[in-house]
Amino acid sequence: MSENNQLSGLQLAIMRVLWDRGEATVADVHEVLHRDRGLAPTTVATILTRLEKRDLLSHRREGRQFIYKALVSEDEVRKSMVSELTDRVFQGNVAELVGHLLSEQEITAGDLEVVKQLIEKKAKTHPED
């Protein structure tokens, strides 16, 4: 997934429905998102078509319905979007990104312990030169 494939909040919400369900119709996606966002089915259909043009999902026809499936994983999207954020906002400085998250976001003791373990694990696989 390239920088050009950054997703908006609504696009991410639609992709999450596909990741959660594996496959979904316009009606399926609309049902999930309509409660919180009040979207029209035509809006959902338009966004699905645009995501397909970007090769982020595909569809197959079943009767009169299109059934959509994600072609990229949630992890691929996260990696791309976090990389773009790191580059654009923090000039590629991962330490600044992590420092900002730790100082500006509420973090539980449990989450902080997980972060410590992740840092220790990364340090073992990338020892200093």
Which tags fit this structure?
Arc Repressor Mutant, subunit A; BlaI/MecI/CopY family transcriptional regulator; mainly alpha; DNA binding; 6 helices; DNA-binding; elongated; transcription; 129 residues; 2 domains
Quickly describe the structure:
By secondary structure, this protein is mainly α.
Topology:
Layout: H1 9-21, H2 26-37, H3 41-53, E1 57-62, E2 65-70, H4 74-90, H5 94-104, H6 109-125
Helix pairs in contact: 1-2, 2-3
Structure description:
- Helices cover 64% and strands 9% of the residues.
- With 129 residues, the protein is mainly alpha-helical.
- The protein folds into two domains: 7-70, Winged helix-like DNA-binding domain superfamily/Winged helix DNA-binding domain (Arc Repressor Mutant, subunit A, Orthogonal Bundle); 94-129.
- It has a two-stranded antiparallel sheet with strand order 1-2.
- Strand 1 (57-62) and strand 2 (65-70) form a beta hairpin.
- It is elongated.
- The model has no long low-confidence stretch (mean pLDDT 92).
- Keywords: DNA-binding, Transcription, Transcription regulation.
- This is BlaI/MecI/CopY family transcriptional regulator.
Main sheet: strands, sense, barrel: 2 strands, antiparallel
- What is the overall shape? elongated
Beta percentage is: 5-15%
Name given to the CATH architecture of the largest domain: Orthogonal Bundle
The radius of gyration over CA amounts to 19 Å
- How many structural domains in the coordinates? 2
Give the CATH class of the largest domain: Mainly Alpha
What is the assigned CATH homologous superfamily of the largest domain?
Winged helix-like DNA-binding domain superfamily/Winged helix DNA-binding domain
> N- to C-terminal separation?
31 Å
Number of strands: 2
SS content category: mainly alpha
Which regions are unreliable across 5 or more consecutive residues at pLDDT < 50? none
- Helicity level, as a percent range? 55-70%
Average pLDDT, rounded to a whole number, is: 92
Strand order of the largest sheet: 1-2
State the helix count. Answer: 6
Order of helices and strands: HHHEEHHH
Would you tell me which CATH topology of the largest domain applies?
Arc Repressor Mutant, subunit A
